[in-house]
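Hi R.,

Here's the chain you asked about this morning:
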Amino acid sequence: MNARQPQTDGVRPWGGDSIGWWDGDTLVVETTGYNPEQSVRGGGPNTKTRNGSRASAPDRVHYAFRVEDPDNLG
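And here is the predicted structure, written out as tokens:
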């Protein structure tokens, strides 16, 4: 949490490299460095995903998900 971990060995994890931090009461998780053989919603190797979760009521969680891919703007 709250730290960036550089990839120095040239190996990309299948599910990417996830880093998490708190933004107020929201847990934010950003993932980059997906394995080139994995497609995230049609994205390429520079895909970045970001999701956030926070309690919106005692029995509910609000979840938001965003995909960014600078190589696939279409």
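One quick note: The chain has a mean pLDDT of 81.

Cheers,
M.
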